[in-house]
Amino acid sequence: MTRRTGPETLRRAASPARLLTLAVLPALLAALFLSVLAVPGARAAKSAPTVSLSKKEAGKGGEITVSGKGWRGEALLMLLICGQATPERGVIGGTNSCANGAGRAVTTDEKGAFSKKLPVAEPPEPCPCVVHVATVTGEQASADAAFTVAGHPTAELPRRTGGGKLAVLAATRLEGDSSLLTWFGAPPARRLVFTVGNLGPAPVEDPVFEIGTAHGVYAPQWEERQWRGTVAPGARARIALPVELSAGAHGDYQISLRYGKKVLAEQPWGVGRPWGVTLFWVLLCLVVPAAVFRIGMAVVDRIRPRTGGAHRTANARPGSAVSKGLPRRTIPVARTARSAAAGDADATTAVLPWFTPDSAPSENRPRPTTKGQA
């Protein structure tokens, strides 16, 4: 007998494999879903930088060791001791509250770890104090560790102004144009325009923003800009803050907007080269040598030795202003053939006597006698 293979037989043979697939597939999907959820958490945990101190308290002139993990690999960090700050609220007064003169820089290794000795100095603001660690270049990151400077004054932190929370609702833009003076090196100026909304339960009055300007790989330089007004809870406001660069600035700049410790927006700004300054230096290099040459020629013409006034009289025409008042020059009768051929305009032609053949001096002159003649 021959065994027939039909659709029914194939279905019976495939049913165990199908059951196995249906049993394993949900487990695979669940494992994949859990791995996707776990990856962002691992990344977030890995990107959170930490700072630890060898001592929690030390006096001025001492030294502590600052260590950290979880930072970006081969990143440049700045270590500072700051006053009027806590790890929860951060450095309230910014870097102006830190002992910048005693700060240290350190570069993390490939795994994002570092260890650096930091001298203890008194910050300009009273404690509570922290050791503030922040990135200098690249993506911004910071972390604080509580620290006490022995013998330094202590004061309470300023009270919070309210529960308002601002957020940028629209894209930022730079408004304004460059003037003619900017073409000659004047500081470029713009207005950073953006729209914010208050997402908190309390109004925000006269918020203080920070404008940062960064050029190339350097960290942004922050300047405070206060906006006069009140943003009610759930309301929005259009804000324009002035932005100004240094004189002669050109190239690609990055303008950042920060409120509190959070960067709200970033805006690129390409500044053209002030070609008027280049034109000025080119003209200066051409005009100054020409002026020096003219002055030098005038001085040489003034101090060079002069001959007698004969050349003036010789070139002066009769009756001219130069010839008036000068003695009349007497031209000798006998002149060389070369001077006569030159045709001197000032020389007067002498009248020569005319001789006839009979009265020529050569014929009337007695001939010399030879020896032996009478």
Automatic annotation (TrEMBL):
Record keywords, A-Z: Membrane, Transmembrane, Transmembrane helix
Keyword Transmembrane helix attached: yes
Bias-annotated ranges (Low complexity): 337-350
Transmembrane segments: 275-296
Domain of life, per lineage: Bacteria
Segments of this protein annotated with the region Disordered: 337-374
Official protein name in the record: Neocarzinostatin family protein
Source organism of this protein record: Streptomyces californicus
Species classification: Bacteria, Bacillati, Actinomycetota, Actinomycetes, Kitasatosporales
